[in-house]
């Protein structure tokens, strides 16, 4: 049962760790069931799907939509009016577009820098060095509609828990380094972003216990809650 899984997971979360229920490829009714069990944060990874669900579920007060998948720049405009956290800000170009659409929508959108720490080749995400270079570039300071809120990472897709832990550990090291970087700005210019770099999003159905050990503040769980994805 969806509600049992939500309760089982949330009962194990230390203070300061929140659950994002990853509802991609599951119907709106599954989200309603999770909501009834008290779940409020939902993660989706396709612009069209989150758009449909947002419309159908508009009656659920306090529900927060998190975008967790690769976001194409031409889709940002569809989700900018309501998305509460983009976990997958994976390039300077995407951040610039999120800023543009956030300003248009009269909002500030919280974004996490997606860090590439896994062994798999992927074109998505900043390496830790690229992310530091991005922070150093200062470009983010001009993005009035974006609040850099932390870091998201995925571990290597493997059964090797030593490797998984090492990946999460690298993400955490970057996260702490970036926090130090932000805290070096004493003035509140930049929309107060400096104090807001607080989220470390990591951990999925198979590895969230390790992620919490390594300092995650947001875990993203789909399969364990909703079962196999349906379409
Ligand atoms: C699908 C997805 C998840 C959830 O994965 P499960 O293994 O089903 O828990 C978490 N994070 C991201 C980025 C995803 O795309």
Report on this model:
The chain has 231 residues and is an alpha/beta fold. It has a single domain, classed as Alpha-Beta Barrel (TIM Barrel), CATH 3.20.20.10. It contains nine helices and eight strands. The protein has an eight-stranded parallel sheet. Helix 2 links the parallel strand 1 and strand 2. The longest helix has 23 residues. The protein is globular. The model has no long low-confidence stretch (mean pLDDT 94). Bound molecules: pyridoxal-5'-phosphate.
List the helices and strands and how they pair.
Blueprint: H1 2-10, E1 18-22, H2 28-36, E2 41-44, H3 47-56, E3 64-67, H4 76-79, E4 85-89, H5 92-104, E5 109-115, H6 128-137, E6 146-153, H7 161-183, E7 199-201, H8 208-213, E8 218-221, H9 223-226
Parallel strand pairs: 1-2, 1-8, 2-3, 3-4, 4-5, 5-6, 6-7
The chain binds pyridoxal-5'-phosphate.
């Amino acid at each position: 049962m969806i509600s049992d899984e939500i309760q089982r997971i949330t009962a194990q979360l230390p203070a300061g760790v929140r659950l994002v229920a990853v509802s991609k490829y599951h119907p709106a009714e599954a989200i309603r069931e999770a909501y009834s069990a008290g779940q409020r944060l939902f993660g989706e990874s396709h612009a069209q799907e989150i758009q449909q669900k947002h419309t159908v579920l508009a009656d659920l007060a306090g529900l927060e939509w998190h975008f967790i998948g690769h976001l194409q720049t031409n889709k940002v405009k569809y989700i900018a009016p309501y998305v509460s956290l983009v976990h997958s800000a994976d390039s300077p170009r995407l951040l610039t577009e999120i800023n543009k659409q956030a300003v248009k929508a009269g909002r500030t959108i919280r974004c996490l820098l997606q860090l590439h720490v896994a062994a798999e080749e992927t074109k998505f995400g900043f390496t830790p060095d690229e992310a530091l270079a991005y922070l150093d570039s200062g470009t983010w300071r001009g993005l009035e509609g974006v609040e850099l809120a932390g870091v998201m990472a995925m571990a290597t897709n493997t059964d090797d828990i030593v490797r998984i832990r090492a990946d999460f550990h690298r993400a955490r090291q970057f996260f702490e380094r970036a926090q130090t970087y932000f805290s070096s700005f004493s003035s509140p210019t930049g929309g107060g972003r400096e104090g807001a770099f607080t989220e470390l999003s990591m951990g999925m159905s198979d590895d969230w216990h390790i992620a919490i050990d390594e300092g995650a503040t947001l875990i993203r769980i789909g399969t364990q809650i909703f079962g196999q994805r349906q379409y």
